Amino acid sequence: MTHSVANPWFFAAFLAVVFVLLAIDLGIFQRKAHAVSVKEALVWSAFWVLLSLLFGSCVFIKLGSRPGLEFFTGYLVEYALSVDNIFVFILIFSYFAVPARLHHRVLFWGILGALIMRGGFILAGSQLIQAFHWVLYLFGAFLIFSGIKILRQKGDTKVEPERNPVVRLFQRIVPMTSGYSGGAFFLRQAGKFVATPLALVLVTVETTDLIFAFDSIPAIFGVTTDWFIVLTSNICAILGLRSMYFVLAAVVDRFVYLGTGLGIVLSFIGVKMLLGDIYPIGIETSLLVVAAILACAVVLSLVRPPRARKSSPDTSIPAQPLVRSEGKQE
């Protein structure tokens, strides 16, 4: 594993706080499934952002200015990339006709799974970089490719769960009920465990996040190779994803230039990685460039939306979802 400026106790304390907060969230505030209001989502979003900023400040004070700036840069990049996740989550929930009051439950367990998967990716990537320095160049080239791909897509996003091999395999081997049953992922019927459509939704969310991780993990390694900064900035960004979903669900389509901004950011970080040994770009410069690009994309989306936005590319939901909406099985 690559060297880290943090000691194990600092990391252990961070994980302990995260697990306690998740337990409180699930066991107390979200004990009963309900549709999350925008007001509630705003409060939780502010809470997670403030907590992340406080932790970043602790990193800045305890570990030094460079690790602190690396954390804030990584957090900003990961948080911005999460907006793409949110738009896809909206399409997934619509596709499967998931009741609004069950969205938070799926997001909670989906993000918990994402934390575990990304943690494994980050630790594996850290080991690879330590053993093979040229992996950074591979990551850089991949980010440039991803950035160009995003720029060429021009914001078009499609969700096709029926073509997802993991979803198709799950449907083939796991017996399922025909409708939702409260917030349950699995039920026991006739002495056998069967999955509800909510389990299929969770599988779709997890595999989608797995795809997004292939962009976000190399991007954060372009900011720093310190596994502690990479992991904690990822965790902080993902923890705020649930509440941000409910805040942006109704207005995310207004940020029409954000995809372009993300494509430029990924390309910039990719170039930074490729030039790292020849012309290193300072972390202060990286933070300013990333913040400026994202700010311009957001402001431009709000101030000067494209004239054709009302007739934007079709992102409607298929007429026949794979499962039926919640019925009498409540």
Can you describe this structure?
- The chain has 330 residues and is mainly alpha-helical.
- It has a domain at 34-153 and 216-304.
- 67% of the residues lie in helices and 2% in strands.
- The protein is built from eleven helices and two strands.
- It has a two-stranded antiparallel sheet.
- A hairpin with a 2-residue loop joins strand 1 and strand 2.
Précis, in short:
With 330 residues, the chain is mainly α. 67% of the residues lie in helices and 2% in strands.
List the SSEs and their pairings.
Elements (H helix, E strand, L loop, with lengths): L7 H22 L8 H26 L1 H31 L7 H29 L3 H19 L11 H9 L12 E4 L2 E4 L1 H25 L5 H13 L1 H8 L9 H17 L8 H21 L27
Antiparallel strand pairs: 1-2
**Spatial order of the strands forming the largest sheet:** 1-2
Structural class: mainly alpha
Mean pLDDT level:
79
Name the overall outline. Answer: globular
Helix content: 55-70%
Low-confidence residue ranges? 309-321, 324-330
The number of helical elements comes to 11
Give, in order, the helices and strands: HHHHHHEEHHHHH
Measured distance between first and last alpha carbons: 48 Å
Total E-strand runs: 2
How much strand?
under 5%
